Amino acid sequence: MGEVIGLIRVMPGEVISDEKLQKMIDDIKAVIKPPAKVGRIDIKNIAFGLKGLDVTVMVPDDAGGLDPIAEKISNVENVESAEVTDVGRV
Fold first, then answer.
1. What CATH number should be reported for the domain whose range is 3-89?
2. Which of 61, 78, 63 is nearest to 32 (CA)?
3. Count H helices, E strands: the chain?
4. What pTM did the predictor assign?
5. 35: helix, coil or strand?
6. Each residue of 19-68: pLDDT tens digit?
7. If we measure between CA atoms, which residue out of 39, 38, 45 comes closest to residue 18?
8. Burial class (CB in 10 A: 0-12, 13-18, 19+), 12
9. Which of 32, 36, 52, 68 gives the lowest tally of CB atoms within 10 Å of its CB?
10. What b/e sequence results for 21-30 when a residue is b if at least 16 CB atoms lie within 10 Å of its CB, and e otherwise?
């Protein structure tokens, strides 16, 4: 059994303050439960002050993929969208 690693691009609906962005990061970490593991969360400058997040997540092959995790992240406060953009096997 291997592991799947993926990148989930998370976008807020509007330009938000650094404090709200940090709360969003903390909330995302809270919704990702074992057996899934958060790798890195990178803040990406998109345009005109809008910042998005690249969330790297690792899950076992038999855990059902990354789409359920992206769905949970999309329900976090201030999150407009959460989309799986890249997937690979470890």
1. 3.30.70.60
2. 63
3. 2, 4
4. 0.93
5. coil
6. 999 999 999 999 999 999 999 999 999 998 899 999 999 999 887 889 99
7. 45
8. buried
9. 68
10. beebbeebee
